[in-house]
Amino acid sequence: MINNFSIDTVLIALQLLWRGMLGIIVTAVLIMLVVMLMQKISQFKQKRAATKKK
Amino acid sequence: MEFLLTGIMAVTWKQVVMYLIGIVLIWLAIQKEYEPALLLPMGFGAILVNLPNSGVLNQYLEGVGNTNGIIQWLYEKGISASEALPILLFIGIGAMIDFGPLLAKPIMFLFGATAQVGIFLAIILATLLGFSLQDAVSIGIIGAADGPTSILVSQIMHSKYIGAIAVAAYSYMALVPIIQPFAIRLVTTKKERCIHMAYTPGEVSRNMRICFPIIVTIIVGFIAPPSVALVGSLMFGNLIRECGVLGTMSDTAQGALANLITLFLGLTISFSMQAEAFVAWDTMFIMFIGLLSFILDTMGGVCFAKLYNLFAKEKVNPMIGGAGISAFPMSARVVQKMAMKEDPTNVILMQAAGANVSGQIASVIAGGMVISLVSQFL
Description:
The complex is a heterodimer. By secondary structure, chain A is mostly helical.
């Protein structure tokens, strides 16, 4: 059976919403930034290789 | 002749309900082809575990003593003791996923991340209905549309509703083509659904493909350590795929390993579908909140895409936000189908696929995040 309703549990759930979403978004942004950085490094390497060939 | 009737005389009405549920699951799997790899073993397992004095469960036999049942043994060893089955399944899933569309458009990570909001809204609703925090978290994670994560979280949280949660998670995953268009239409206009998106992918080098699973594992491991088992397995599978030197192992992970574990997982999870616990009003609530969680996740992703459009130079089709859930690649296909229905020349499949694979990672992070946060609160 479902336990009794408790306002404390609801308040914790509200904190979960805030902290959980913050955690997920921060993680996603970090991964995104690292991937973007790697893309930039890769482009830079390509440009440098092209310049050397010239 | 009495011994022939002992079985049938011991059947309860709840067990009969479970036979019907089992038959419906098998019917959905075969006739409608809804997640047949899981719904069929689960449906058959639901019948197996609900036969009176079933031999697939541990029993005490007069004069013989205790006997072990195979499904109970598999459950205790494969899920209860180590969560091994859902975790190992992630190696196969990781080997199946091509993160290329996401690496080409890294901004898609944000769509996957924001599409997890429904999980947390559903957790709040479940606590309002009186579920304990552990049960509420387990129910909310259904919205991730990720069966193994749902099973893992509910097992770690020691939720007694693991059977209903698994059934809800896999049923709704199968119903993506019905649920998502409904949810997306609720929060988008025809004009928004017609937005075209130019596809100009960034370059994805082999090095990046190899480094990506390692980077994700390390970042997620630092932020949400409890999710390392899941993310680590997913990314390990992907590393096998992308490294280029383990072709046969990658094929095995994608094929034989994934199929074998899916088969065992479906049968094993039916242990938690025993009539006494399953046939209850709570199960109805779980199915309802799970559905709501799924719808809110989709709507959350779409609403973030609309918010993004307020600030972005190049507008995105908000429907791709709805693809930021874990049901890969079904969700991306559904979004593409919807786009083509509004405008047959509109192709947004690659962008939707990027959001979809980011949803796969984000749902696993969400699972780890709730485990981590709940353990801090309790």
